[in-house]
């Protein structure tokens, strides 16, 4: 049997390094940590969003290789984050407008009290072992992401909860007793963090064999050659790249700035598509007042573009 990890894989290209990270840990001093972390990121020209809370850190940042290395080194120099792991990809243009370090109650919010992945969590499955698990007829595969994410890509045979928010996931589980019909539950999300809490919740709901993809879809797309992959489509990412594909190459999707839904090249040909104003997904749900407001914003974006600057509403 061929070792899939030994097959050369396409590598994403781009001048900007993107680092996605999270780490659950008791972080009592998180409030005092915000200002120095923000200052370092600003000094290094790093942009993105980092959420810090009593339970740890979560976020995605982008910058030069040296800038990202400096921020990651600073984080790992803290005793709480010495074991911090991150995932890398590249972007052809800076995918964030600004740098935000935010204080939060939780680094990922599911809306269920006392869910702590440090206490109980599912079994991690490496990307090279994932195909076998989800191909097992005794396994139910669950996508824990939201509907606009699953719309552009998913693993073959996965159950799509069609949730609008991660807060909807617990009720979806409670209302689907059929999830107990098979012994194994395999779960996945973009980078792995939602599954930390989702698998913890499933374990506390009485599910015994609960597994999740280590490193999430991003790690799978990085390590799994396309010819051996069970992933179909692209993976939605929360930055200006909008989506990535195998090898973490940038996808073809753009974003509707009216409803924030990802758009395929085909969607852009729809008669309902008006850049910055409406798209095939939201044209029926927007009023004419909404559209006029969006047109005014789009005009400001275009004016900024002609001046060689980037409008914050773009």
From TrEMBL:
Species for this entry: Pararhizobium antarcticum
EC number: 1.14.-.-
Catalytic activity: uridine(34) in tRNA + AH2 + O2 = 5-hydroxyuridine(34) in tRNA + A + H2O
Single GO MF descriptor: oxidoreductase activity, acting on paired donors, with incorporation or reduction of molecular oxygen
Family: Belongs to the TrhO family.
InterPro entries: Rhodanese-like_dom, Rhodanese-like_dom_sf, TrhO, TRHO_N
UniProt-recorded name of the protein: tRNA uridine(34) hydroxylase
Lineage of the species this protein comes from: Bacteria, Pseudomonadati, Pseudomonadota, Alphaproteobacteria, Hyphomicrobiales
PANTHER family found in the cross-reference section: RHODANESE-LIKE DOMAIN-CONTAINING PROTEIN 7-RELATED, THIOSULFATE SULFURTRANSFERASE/RHODANESE-LIKE DOMAIN-CONTAINING PROTEIN 2
Domain spans labelled Rhodanese: 135-229
Pfam families in UniProt: Rhodanese, UPF0176_N
Job of this protein: Catalyzes oxygen-dependent 5-hydroxyuridine (ho5U) modification at position 34 in tRNAs.
């Amino acid at each position: 049997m061929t070792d899939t990890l030994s097959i050369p894989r396409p590598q994403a290209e781009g001048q900007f390094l993107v680092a996605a990270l999270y780490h659950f840990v008791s972080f009592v001093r998180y409030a005092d940590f915000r200002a120095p972390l923000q200052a370092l990121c600003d000094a290094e020209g790093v942009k993105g969003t980092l959420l810090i809370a009593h339970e740890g850190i979560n976020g995605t940042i982008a910058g030069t290789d040296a800038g990202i290395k400096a921020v990651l080194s600073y984080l790992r120099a803290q005793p709480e984050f010495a074991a911090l792991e991150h995932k890398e990809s590249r972007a052809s243009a800076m995918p964030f407008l600004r740098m935000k370090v935010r204080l939060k109650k939780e680094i990922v919010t599911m809306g269920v009290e006392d869910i702590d992945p440090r206490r109980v969590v599912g079994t991690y499955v490496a990307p090279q072992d994932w195909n076998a698990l989800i191909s097992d007829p005794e396994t139910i595969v669950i996508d824990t992401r939201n509907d606009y994410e699953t719309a552009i890509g998913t693993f073959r045979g996965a159950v799509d909860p069609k949730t609008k928010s991660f807060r909807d996931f617990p009720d979806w589980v409670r209302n689907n007793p059929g999830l107990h019909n098979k012994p194994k539950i395999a779960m996945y999300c973009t980078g792995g963090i939602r599954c930390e809490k989702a698998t913890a919740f499933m374990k506390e709901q009485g599910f015994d064999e609960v597994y999740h993809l280590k490193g999430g879809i991003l790690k799978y797309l990085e390590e799994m050659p396309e010819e051996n992959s069970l992933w179909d489509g692209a993976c939605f990412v929360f930055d200006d790249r909008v989506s990535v594909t195998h090898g973490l190459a940038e996808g073809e999707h753009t974003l509707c700035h009216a409803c924030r839904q990802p758009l395929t090249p085909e969607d852009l040909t729809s008669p309902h598509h008006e850049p910055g104003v409406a798209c095939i997904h939201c044209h029926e749900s927007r009023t004419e007042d909404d559209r006029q407001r969006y047109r005014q914003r789009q005009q400001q974006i275009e004016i900024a573009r002609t001046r060689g600057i980037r409008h914050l509403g773009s």
